[in-house]
């Protein structure tokens, strides 16, 4: 049984193809039938029906009715529109009707939460009150759980959330939903070779998912900060991840199973440019012989052993030769966890001071390594994380990932050595896997990525932001908002690039 089919993650799409192939293979061998049940609240049932050659079945849900209200005019500032709508609800709706507001990310959520609290203190002259809670992936587990707890009598619960609250979870008491109509979505640009994090319009299916959150416990209302006409221009369904994701990991895993991406029966086949881009990256990583002959190599099979993106797996394969396997196991594990730093709106100065203790002059990767290395030595981790505004859940997850990666490294007979204070070894090793994520400083003050020639600046969250600008940097991802930002940045030497990856030629000016 495959549930939440509408989410259309890459892994889900690969699984659909594999189970379909398994069904066909069992028929050929005249074995007992493999029965599949695929379910979702908002799936495109005709599309799935054609793919599996079956008829779908609709089951009537038991949710309560939700009254939908759209903005009469287009709103230039959806955050302000949400704020005005919230206080209109607060004036006119019963105090026990809690509110869920959908926004795009942590910064928006924390800023609006602070604004609501301030306005509530100024305007609140009666017995009623509001309690504001936030819900997003980077929030500590304890803080996430707070929004599920009951609030005192004569108090309205207001939850500000990302699309983490769209499906799967139900927050008790929610009777009103305010939908901003936007979401942050990660997409891969095959021509530039970079992952982009952009704010985009939600799909109509997502809009209905969001409105449904108001009708879980009782009849509710959904206030949309966009017009009814604007919604008709929204895509009907969320674009499948496989059509916008970096396919390098997927292509490698399929090759390890003896499956060529070109011949695999996807429910929605990825664009050829994306597949070619994945093959090119795998060729540079040594995972396949060539783009024209995409046969998996011994290195490719080793890369496929790690449950990681191939570029991160490459870091672990090359780390012993740089003498920094111990450090790279920790760093890769931490990079594959969610953000370990916790921002605090009311204690921002204290949080900044606590985080400053771990800052490395070399950049964000070595700062993250320092945080995780210290966490590994601490006994009372809960108190330490609380005092240092660090996410214990994400750090504990990283520790578990590290243990798993070390087991695989041991099985592959990879030497677990340490570079000690020789941090240049860690930075050189980073180039071996993240060579497509290098940017050079330009005379105008911005950076230009070597891959894709994208103009960008260092993200404000970086330890290097607002300080000395290194001539050459390596980054983890490019974020596209009102301008391009490079996130998780580390200074590297230009001379190291050709030394570590001879195929990359740098023109010295």
From TrEMBL:
<keyword id="KW-0378">Hydrolase</keyword>
<dbReference type="InterPro" id="IPR001650">
    <property type="entry name" value="Helicase_C-like"/>
</dbReference>
<dbReference type="Pfam" id="PF21010">
    <property type="entry name" value="HA2_C"/>
</dbReference>
<keyword id="KW-0067">ATP-binding</keyword>
<dbReference type="GO" id="GO:0005524">
    <property type="term" value="F:ATP binding"/>
</dbReference>
<dbReference type="GO" id="GO:0003724">
    <property type="term" value="F:RNA helicase activity"/>
</dbReference>
<dbReference type="Pfam" id="PF00271">
    <property type="entry name" value="Helicase_C"/>
</dbReference>
<dbReference type="InterPro" id="IPR027417">
    <property type="entry name" value="P-loop_NTPase"/>
</dbReference>
<dbReference type="GO" id="GO:0003725">
    <property type="term" value="F:double-stranded RNA binding"/>
</dbReference>
<dbReference type="GO" id="GO:0016787">
    <property type="term" value="F:hydrolase activity"/>
</dbReference>
<dbReference type="InterPro" id="IPR011709">
    <property type="entry name" value="DEAD-box_helicase_OB_fold"/>
</dbReference>
<protein>
    <recommendedName>
        <fullName>RNA helicase</fullName>
        <ecNumber>3.6.4.13</ecNumber>
    </recommendedName>
</protein>
<dbReference type="InterPro" id="IPR007502">
    <property type="entry name" value="Helicase-assoc_dom"/>
</dbReference>
<keyword id="KW-0547">Nucleotide-binding</keyword>
<keyword id="KW-0347">Helicase</keyword>
<dbReference type="GO" id="GO:0005730">
    <property type="term" value="C:nucleolus"/>
</dbReference>
<dbReference type="Pfam" id="PF07717">
    <property type="entry name" value="OB_NTP_bind"/>
</dbReference>
<dbReference type="GO" id="GO:0045943">
    <property type="term" value="P:positive regulation of transcription by RNA polymerase I"/>
</dbReference>
<feature type="domain" description="Helicase C-terminal">
    <location>
        <begin position="82"/>
        <end position="258"/>
    </location>
</feature>
